[in-house]
Amino acid sequence: MMEIKTMDKPDERRDFPGGHLEALNLTGLHLAVVTLEPGWRWRESVRPIVGTDSCQVQHSGIIVRGRMRVLMDDGAEGEVGPGDVYVVPPGHEAWVVGDEQVVMYDVGGQMAETYAKSSDAGA
C-alpha cells in the first residue's frame, strides 16, 4: 500500500519553549520536522517536560538550517549544521548555536513518536 503525505499538513504538532515539532507518521517511517529558535537549549526547554537529566531519545536525520551543538553524557561533543547527517544516541544535551533558527528532519522514529512528551513517554 502506497502512502503519501505532505509536510504542510502534519499529523501532530508539539510546541515546547523555544521550538516545535511537526510529526508525520507513515507505515515504516516516522518523520519529525523540528524548528528551534535562537537561544533554545534542551535542558531549559524539554527537560522540565520529560523529567530526565539528559535527552534519552535517539536522533537520526539531517540539519536543513542553522547550527546545533551536542554534548554527550560521556563528554563527547560535536556541532552539526546545514547538510550534516547525524545519528545521536540517547544521553545528550543540545543547544542552538548563533542567531539563526535550526530546522532539522529527524527520521529515526523516536523523535516523532515521543519527543517533548511527558516524563512517562520519553525525552
3D architecture notes:
It is a single chain. By secondary structure, the chain is mainly beta. It contains three helices and nine strands. It has helices at 42-45, 47-50, 110-114, and strands at 12-16, 19-26, 29-36, 59-65, 67-72, 77-80, 85-88, 92-97, 102-106. The strands form two sheets. The protein has a six-stranded antiparallel β-sheet. 25% of the residues are buried. Residues 119-123 have low confidence and may be disordered.
What would a concise description of this structure say?
11% of the residues lie in helices and 43% in strands. It contains three helices and nine strands, in the order E-E-E-H-H-E-E-E-E-E-E-H.
SSE layout and pairing:
Layout lengths: L11 E5 L2 E8 L2 E8 L5 H4 L1 H4 L8 E7 L1 E6 L4 E4 L4 E4 L3 E6 L4 E5 L3 H5 L9
Antiparallel strand pairs: 1-2, 2-3, 3-9, 4-7, 4-9, 5-6, 5-8
Classify the helix fraction into a percent range.
10-25%
Oligomeric state? single chain
Say how many strands there are: 9
The class by helix and strand makeup works out as mainly beta
End-to-end Cα distance, whole Å, is 32 Å
The rough form would be described as: globular
Order of strands in the sheet with most strands: 1-2-3-9-4-7
List the secondary-structure elements in sequence, H or E. Answer: EEEHHEEEEEEH
Report the average pLDDT across residues.
91
Uncertain segments are: 119-123
How many strands, what sense, and barrel or not for the largest sheet? 6 strands, antiparallel
Output the radius of gyration: 14 Å
Proportion in β-strands = 35-45%
- How many H/I helices? 3
